[in-house]
């Protein structure tokens, strides 16, 4: 089976309306606690090489720390210049105080 749920963080490690960066299978992911739920996206901005975990969560949007590009957290949608390429998103869920992310190992 190529898809697997991976435990990535405890819920108490991510403040409300905040995010953390984690490394999984050689990629950096951003794990969010926002709008009452948990979300996961690629952790590096699609514009340049900036770690989104250093950015700000505002109303369900992550703002990149380098040039303030913005992405919708739930969908990864790029919301305008300077970002134009959407972030890849991953299914996330919480169970027993742990956040899990579904990763497909057959794709990059
Ligand atoms: S690196 Fe993120 S907006 Fe430029």
Provide a concise account of the structure shown:
This protein is mostly beta strands. The chain has strands spanning 3-10, 18-24, 27-34, 37-42, 56-58, 61-63, 70-72, 89-90, 92-95, 98-104.
Question: Notable features of this structure?
Answer:
47% strand, mainly beta, Rieske Iron-sulfur Protein, 108 residues, binds FE2/S2 (inorganic) cluster, 3-stranded antiparallel beta sheet
How many structural domains? 1
The unreliable regions are: none
Q: What is the CATH domain class?
A: Mainly Beta
What's the name of the CATH homologous superfamily? Rieske [2Fe-2S] iron-sulphur domain
Which percent bin holds the helix content? under 10%
Instruction: Identify the strand order in the major beta sheet.
Output: 2-3-4-8
Distance between the termini: 16 Å
Please name the CATH topology: Rieske Iron-sulfur Protein
How would you characterize the overall build of this protein?
Helices cover 0% and strands 47% of the residues. It has no helices and 10 strands. It has a single domain, classed as Rieske [2Fe-2S] iron-sulphur domain (Rieske Iron-sulfur Protein, 3-layer Sandwich). The model has no long low-confidence stretch (mean pLDDT 94). By secondary structure, it is mainly β. It binds FE2/S2 (inorganic) cluster (FES). The site of FE2/S2 (inorganic) cluster has 10 residues, from loops.
Secondary structure layout:
Layout: E1 3-10, E2 18-24, E3 27-34, E4 37-42, E5 56-58, E6 61-63, E7 70-72, E8 89-90, E9 92-95, E10 98-104
Antiparallel strand pairs: 1-10, 2-3, 3-4, 4-8, 5-6, 6-7, 9-10
FE2/S2 (inorganic) cluster binds at residues 45, 47-48, 50, 64, 66-67, 69, 82-83.
């Amino acid at each position: 089976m190529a898809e697997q749920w991976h435990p990535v963080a405890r819920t108490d490690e991510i403040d409300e309306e905040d995010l953390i960066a984690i490394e999984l299978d050689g990629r950096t992911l951003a794990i969010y606690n926002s709008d009452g739920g948990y979300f996961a996206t690629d952790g590096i901005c699609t514009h340049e090489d900036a770690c989104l975990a250093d950015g700000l969560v505002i109303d369900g949007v992550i703002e990149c720390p380098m040039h303030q590009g913005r992405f919708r957290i739930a969908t990864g949608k790029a919301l305008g210049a300077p970002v134009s390429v959407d972030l890849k998103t991953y299914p996330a869920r919480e169970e027993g105080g742990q956040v899990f992310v579904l990763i497909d190992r057959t794709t990059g």
